[in-house]
Protein backbone atom coordinates (compact mmCIF):
# COMPACT_ATOMS: atom_id res chain seq x y z
CA UNK A 1 0.00 0.00 0.00
CA UNK A 2 2.84 2.40 0.93
CA UNK A 3 4.61 1.55 -2.34
CA UNK A 4 1.40 2.25 -4.29
CA UNK A 5 0.94 5.61 -2.49
CA UNK A 6 4.55 6.57 -3.21
CA UNK A 7 4.15 5.72 -6.87
CA UNK A 8 0.94 7.73 -7.14
CA UNK A 9 2.57 10.70 -5.38
CA UNK A 10 5.57 10.50 -7.71
CA UNK A 11 3.34 10.50 -10.78
CA UNK A 12 1.08 13.30 -9.54
CA UNK A 13 4.05 15.46 -8.55
CA UNK A 14 5.62 15.32 -11.98
CA UNK A 15 2.30 15.83 -13.73
CA UNK A 16 1.83 18.99 -11.64
CA UNK A 17 5.41 20.11 -12.30
CA UNK A 18 4.94 19.74 -16.05
CA UNK A 19 1.80 21.88 -15.95
CA UNK A 20 3.33 24.60 -13.77
CA UNK A 21 4.79 27.34 -15.97
CA UNK A 22 6.21 30.70 -15.00
CA UNK A 23 7.80 33.59 -16.85
CA UNK A 24 9.71 36.70 -15.85
CA UNK A 25 8.74 39.77 -17.88
CA UNK A 26 11.31 42.56 -17.99
CA UNK A 27 10.75 46.07 -19.29
CA UNK A 28 11.37 49.77 -18.77
CA UNK A 29 9.00 52.71 -18.33
CA UNK A 30 7.27 53.43 -21.64
CA UNK A 31 3.95 54.98 -20.64
CA UNK A 32 1.09 54.71 -21.34
CA UNK A 33 2.05 51.28 -22.67
CA UNK A 34 4.24 50.12 -19.77
CA UNK A 35 4.97 52.00 -16.54
CA UNK A 36 4.67 51.78 -12.77
CA UNK A 37 3.08 53.79 -9.99
CA UNK A 38 3.91 53.02 -6.40
CA UNK A 39 5.70 49.88 -7.56
CA UNK A 40 2.61 48.60 -9.38
CA UNK A 41 2.98 47.79 -13.09
CA UNK A 42 0.40 49.60 -15.24
CA UNK A 43 -0.37 50.34 -18.87
CA UNK A 44 -1.69 48.88 -22.11
CA UNK A 45 0.92 46.16 -22.52
CA UNK A 46 0.88 45.28 -18.82
CA UNK A 47 -2.87 44.70 -18.89
CA UNK A 48 -2.56 42.61 -22.05
CA UNK A 49 0.30 40.51 -20.65
CA UNK A 50 -1.34 39.98 -17.26
CA UNK A 51 -4.57 38.87 -18.93
CA UNK A 52 -2.65 36.56 -21.26
CA UNK A 53 -0.75 34.93 -18.42
CA UNK A 54 -3.85 34.54 -16.25
CA UNK A 55 -5.86 32.93 -19.06
CA UNK A 56 -2.94 30.64 -19.92
CA UNK A 57 -2.36 29.58 -16.31
CA UNK A 58 1.18 30.98 -16.36
CA UNK A 59 2.72 32.55 -13.26
CA UNK A 60 3.97 36.04 -14.15
CA UNK A 61 6.59 38.28 -12.55
CA UNK A 62 7.14 41.80 -13.96
CA UNK A 63 10.38 43.67 -13.25
CA UNK A 64 11.60 47.09 -14.43
CA UNK A 65 15.18 47.77 -15.54
CA UNK A 66 17.02 50.20 -17.82
CA UNK A 67 16.12 49.18 -21.37
CA UNK A 68 19.48 47.79 -22.48
CA UNK A 69 19.67 45.57 -19.37
CA UNK A 70 16.11 44.31 -19.83
CA UNK A 71 16.81 43.50 -23.47
CA UNK A 72 19.99 41.56 -22.61
CA UNK A 73 18.26 39.58 -19.86
CA UNK A 74 15.51 38.40 -22.18
CA UNK A 75 17.99 37.61 -24.93
CA UNK A 76 20.19 35.43 -22.70
CA UNK A 77 17.97 33.86 -20.02
CA UNK A 78 15.36 31.12 -20.67
CA UNK A 79 11.76 31.75 -19.59
CA UNK A 80 12.32 35.52 -19.66
CA UNK A 81 10.47 37.87 -21.98
CA UNK A 82 10.89 41.56 -22.76
CA UNK A 83 7.98 43.84 -23.58
CA UNK A 84 7.14 45.83 -25.54
CA UNK A 85 9.75 45.30 -28.23
CA UNK A 86 9.86 46.77 -31.72
CA UNK A 87 10.26 43.93 -34.21
CA UNK A 88 13.08 44.92 -36.56
CA UNK A 89 15.22 42.88 -38.99
CA UNK A 90 18.25 43.27 -36.71
CA UNK A 91 16.36 41.70 -33.79
CA UNK A 92 14.45 39.05 -35.73
CA UNK A 93 16.62 36.07 -34.76
CA UNK A 94 17.15 37.13 -31.14
CA UNK A 95 13.69 36.18 -29.84
CA UNK A 96 10.54 34.17 -30.26
CA UNK A 97 7.86 36.75 -31.06
CA UNK A 98 4.32 37.07 -29.72
CA UNK A 99 2.11 39.84 -31.09
CA UNK A 100 1.97 42.51 -32.27
CA UNK A 101 0.20 44.21 -29.36
CA UNK A 102 0.08 47.62 -31.05
CA UNK A 103 1.73 49.78 -33.70
CA UNK A 104 3.31 53.14 -33.02
CA UNK A 105 4.84 55.84 -35.20
CA UNK A 106 7.94 57.66 -34.00
CA UNK A 107 8.39 61.32 -34.85
CA UNK A 108 10.98 63.98 -34.23
CA UNK A 109 9.41 66.86 -32.30
CA UNK A 110 10.30 70.40 -31.35
CA UNK A 111 8.71 72.88 -28.99
CA UNK A 112 6.52 75.36 -30.88
CA UNK A 113 8.09 78.10 -28.79
CA UNK A 114 11.47 77.40 -30.43
CA UNK A 115 10.86 79.70 -33.38
CA UNK A 116 14.58 79.83 -34.00
CA UNK A 117 14.38 76.23 -35.23
CA UNK A 118 13.25 76.50 -38.84
CA UNK A 119 13.02 73.03 -40.37
CA UNK A 120 12.72 72.36 -44.07
CA UNK A 121 14.43 68.96 -44.23
CA UNK A 122 16.39 66.42 -42.23
CA UNK A 123 19.63 68.36 -42.74
CA UNK A 124 18.20 71.23 -40.73
CA UNK A 125 17.55 68.87 -37.81
CA UNK A 126 21.07 67.43 -38.01
CA UNK A 127 22.48 70.86 -37.20
CA UNK A 128 21.13 70.40 -33.65
CA UNK A 129 20.94 67.70 -30.99
CA UNK A 130 18.13 65.14 -30.98
CA UNK A 131 17.24 63.19 -27.84
CA UNK A 132 16.74 59.40 -27.99
CA UNK A 133 16.79 56.36 -25.68
CA UNK A 134 19.75 53.97 -25.75
CA UNK A 135 18.95 50.69 -27.44
CA UNK A 136 15.56 51.72 -28.82
CA UNK A 137 14.81 50.88 -32.43
CA UNK A 138 14.28 54.60 -33.03
CA UNK A 139 17.87 55.32 -31.92
CA UNK A 140 19.12 52.88 -34.54
CA UNK A 141 16.94 54.48 -37.20
CA UNK A 142 18.36 57.90 -36.37
CA UNK A 143 21.89 56.53 -36.75
CA UNK A 144 20.92 55.14 -40.15
CA UNK A 145 19.83 58.65 -41.10
CA UNK A 146 23.29 59.91 -40.24
CA UNK A 147 22.91 61.14 -36.67
CA UNK A 148 26.05 60.59 -34.58
CA UNK A 149 26.18 59.88 -30.84
CA UNK A 150 27.53 62.79 -28.79
CA UNK A 151 27.51 65.02 -31.87
CA UNK A 152 23.88 65.54 -32.84
CA UNK A 153 22.41 62.48 -31.11
CA UNK A 154 21.96 62.68 -27.32
CA UNK A 155 21.03 59.36 -25.69
CA UNK A 156 19.55 58.65 -22.25
CA UNK A 157 18.57 55.51 -20.34
CA UNK A 158 14.82 56.20 -20.31
CA UNK A 159 12.02 58.12 -22.00
CA UNK A 160 11.50 60.07 -18.77
CA UNK A 161 15.07 61.40 -18.90
CA UNK A 162 14.72 61.99 -22.63
CA UNK A 163 11.62 64.17 -22.23
CA UNK A 164 13.17 65.98 -19.26
CA UNK A 165 16.13 67.07 -21.39
CA UNK A 166 13.78 68.15 -24.17
CA UNK A 167 11.58 70.25 -21.89
CA UNK A 168 14.58 71.91 -20.24
CA UNK A 169 16.10 72.82 -23.60
CA UNK A 170 19.17 70.60 -23.23
CA UNK A 171 18.27 69.07 -26.60
CA UNK A 172 16.54 70.94 -29.41
CA UNK A 173 14.53 67.94 -30.65
CA UNK A 174 13.24 64.65 -29.32
CA UNK A 175 12.41 61.35 -31.02
CA UNK A 176 9.37 59.77 -29.39
CA UNK A 177 5.97 58.25 -30.03
CA UNK A 178 2.90 60.51 -29.66
CA UNK A 179 1.38 58.60 -26.74
CA UNK A 180 4.61 58.43 -24.75
CA UNK A 181 5.51 62.09 -25.28
CA UNK A 182 1.99 63.19 -24.39
CA UNK A 183 2.14 61.20 -21.13
CA UNK A 184 5.41 62.76 -19.97
CA UNK A 185 4.43 66.26 -21.04
CA UNK A 186 1.49 66.00 -18.65
CA UNK A 187 3.86 64.85 -15.90
CA UNK A 188 5.86 68.05 -16.46
CA UNK A 189 2.73 70.18 -16.38
CA UNK A 190 3.02 70.85 -20.09
CA UNK A 191 0.52 70.39 -22.91
CA UNK A 192 0.57 68.29 -26.05
CA UNK A 193 -0.33 71.49 -27.94
CA UNK A 194 3.12 72.90 -27.09
CA UNK A 195 4.96 70.53 -29.45
CA UNK A 196 4.91 69.83 -33.15
CA UNK A 197 6.22 66.97 -35.26
CA UNK A 198 8.87 68.08 -37.75
CA UNK A 199 9.90 64.70 -39.14
CA UNK A 200 8.43 61.18 -39.14
CA UNK A 201 10.69 58.14 -39.13
CA UNK A 202 9.80 55.92 -42.07
CA UNK A 203 9.10 52.83 -40.01
CA UNK A 204 5.89 52.38 -38.05
CA UNK A 205 7.07 50.15 -35.24
CA UNK A 206 5.17 46.93 -34.50
CA UNK A 207 5.42 46.36 -30.74
CA UNK A 208 5.69 42.71 -29.65
CA UNK A 209 6.52 40.49 -26.72
CA UNK A 210 10.01 39.02 -27.19
CA UNK A 211 10.42 35.63 -25.48
CA UNK A 212 13.84 34.06 -25.00
CA UNK A 213 14.41 31.47 -27.73
CA UNK A 214 15.51 28.78 -25.25
CA UNK A 215 12.36 29.03 -23.13
CA UNK A 216 10.08 26.09 -22.35
CA UNK A 217 8.21 25.36 -25.62
CA UNK A 218 4.98 24.90 -23.63
CA UNK A 219 5.34 28.46 -22.35
CA UNK A 220 5.49 29.84 -25.89
CA UNK A 221 2.48 27.76 -26.98
CA UNK A 222 0.32 28.83 -24.06
CA UNK A 223 1.18 32.52 -24.25
CA UNK A 224 0.80 32.61 -28.02
CA UNK A 225 -2.57 30.86 -27.88
CA UNK A 226 -3.77 33.19 -25.13
CA UNK A 227 -2.65 36.26 -27.09
CA UNK A 228 -4.53 35.13 -30.19
CA UNK A 229 -7.70 34.60 -28.14
CA UNK A 230 -7.45 38.14 -26.75
CA UNK A 231 -6.79 39.60 -30.18
CA UNK A 232 -9.59 37.71 -31.91
CA UNK A 233 -12.09 38.58 -29.19
CA UNK A 234 -11.38 42.32 -29.58
CA UNK A 235 -10.08 42.58 -26.01
CA UNK A 236 -6.75 44.10 -27.05
CA UNK A 237 -8.48 46.81 -29.09
CA UNK A 238 -10.65 47.57 -26.06
CA UNK A 239 -7.59 47.91 -23.79
CA UNK A 240 -5.87 50.21 -26.29
CA UNK A 241 -8.94 52.43 -26.59
CA UNK A 242 -9.31 52.59 -22.81
CA UNK A 243 -5.75 53.80 -22.27
CA UNK A 244 -4.99 55.99 -25.27
CA UNK A 245 -8.22 56.56 -27.15
CA UNK A 246 -8.61 60.05 -28.54
CA UNK A 247 -4.91 60.90 -28.71
Automatic annotation (TrEMBL):
Signal peptide: 1-17
Domain Solute-binding protein family 3/N-terminal: 22-247
A Pfam family hit: SBP_bac_3
Keyword Signal in annotation: yes
Keyword Signal (UniProt): yes
Keywords assigned by UniProt, alphabetized: Signal
Protein name per UniProt: Solute-binding protein family 3/N-terminal domain-containing protein
Amino acid sequence: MRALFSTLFFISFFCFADDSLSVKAVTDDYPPFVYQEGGEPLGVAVEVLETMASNAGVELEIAFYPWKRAYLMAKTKPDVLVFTLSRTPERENDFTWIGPIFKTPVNIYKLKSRRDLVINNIKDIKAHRVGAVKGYASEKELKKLGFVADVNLDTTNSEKQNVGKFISGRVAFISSSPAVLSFYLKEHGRSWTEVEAVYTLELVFDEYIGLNKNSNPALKRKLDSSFKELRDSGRIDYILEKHIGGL
